[in-house]
Amino acid sequence: MATVTLKGNPFETIGSLPSVGSKAADFSLVQADLSEVTLASLAGKKVVLNIFPSIDTPTCATSVRKFNEQAASFSDTVVLCVSMDLPFAMARFCGAEGIDNVLVGSGFRSSFGQDYGLTFSNGPLAGLYSRSVVVVDADGTVLHAEQVAETADEPDYQAAIAVL
């Protein structure tokens, strides 16, 4: 279990992020077109998992925009933006914003949050995902894992990009 804050108030997650050097758990998430994306389907590419509570909040939206900009410069890397938002909401946001360099994955019918230990277990965001970034290499090994201590803050984009 990890403790993070939201506007200074402490809340807990159900576990801890995978550690650097460990094998990332496979997952199945629902994309904007309702097809599934899995870690196995992305094998051979580096994967940046940009994980957040909801695309309809300012900080979450900013992280999607910033990773969209960064992703354009990496041909061997996929950025997958993950939340519990429905695929329709994620598609609406990306369409309205002209976001086309990232994939989106909804965990609404997935064990992703449990498998990665980042589902909020209490507080107003209970059931949603804690803001985190996990970078996985082409063989499925975790290269970087950050759980943002204050949920309202942005992740450390440069630290995630540096391991690529």
TrEMBL record:
Keywords: Antioxidant, Disulfide bond, Oxidoreductase, Peroxidase, Redox-active center. It comes from the Bacteria. Its EC number is 1.11.1.24. The keyword Nucleotide-binding does not apply. It is an enzyme of class 1 (oxidoreductase). It catalyses: a hydroperoxide + [thioredoxin]-dithiol = an alcohol + [thioredoxin]-disulfide + H2O. The active site is at 60 (cysteine sulfenic acid (-soh) intermediate). It holds the Pfam family Redoxin. The keyword Magnesium does not apply. GO terms for molecular function: thioredoxin peroxidase activity. InterPro entries: Redoxin, Thioredoxin-like_sf, Thioredoxin_domain, TPX, Tpx_CS, Tpx_Peroxidase_subfamily. Residues 18-164 form the Thioredoxin domain. Disulfide bonds join 60-94. The active site is a conserved redox-active cysteine residue, the peroxidatic cysteine (C(P)), which makes the nucleophilic attack on the peroxide substrate. The peroxide oxidizes the C(P)-SH to cysteine sulfenic acid (C(P)-SOH), which then reacts with another cysteine residue, the resolving cysteine (C(R)), to form a disulfide bridge. The disulfide is subsequently reduced by an appropriate electron donor to complete the catalytic cycle. In this atypical 2-Cys peroxiredoxin, C(R) is present in the same subunit to form an intramolecular disulfide. NCBIfam families: PRK00522.1 (NF001808). Belongs to the peroxiredoxin family. Tpx subfamily. Homodimer. Thiol-specific peroxidase that catalyzes the reduction of hydrogen peroxide and organic hydroperoxides to water and alcohols, respectively. Plays a role in cell protection against oxidative stress by detoxifying peroxides. This is Thiol peroxidase.
